[in-house]
Specification:
Helices cover 34% and strands 27% of the residues. It is an alpha/beta fold and 184 residues long. Helix 1 packs across helix 3.
Length: 184
Amino acid sequence: MNPGPAIRGDPFPDLAGLYERHVGLSEPLSNAYAEAAAVCLNRHHSPPRDVMVLADNRSRVREIYWRVPDQRAQAAWGNNIDATENGAYSVALAAVELELGMFSLGRTFPLTGADFWVAPAGETDLENASRLEVAGLDNGEDPEIQSKLREKIAQARRGHSSTPALASVVAFRALQVRISTVTP
């Protein structure tokens, strides 16, 4: 993927407030995902920071801000794997909203090869939705990020669903989000 030069885009929305636009997120879940993202981001950075978002053939630099997590939040998300996975959900959904104008309708069914149903604003019918598979990386540079994205694309292809799909990788240390349309 050679997206060309990055341009500056609008900043990420408040991650805790995603539930206000994403009908597939409840307020407590949105807050939990945002808190996990804050713990992951705070492991390597201090707010605000620029994040490179690469979506198919486009690249944008977007500023992200997070609330610095206190000791209680850090302890609650002490499991690195859980924090990275759940934090990636928040950042990926915000990136898909910004880059593709798509919003969560909810979690997918087992064996679909993805995590969320996403669709354009106002759409509520799963028949018109796409699947979104998300992965998070705490560490990792371009080779690992690209490898993880290929893995997620393959997973979405293997899913038991004919619904279109997207794959996304959120790399917290590298401050990068990659989104790819999954082709058959």
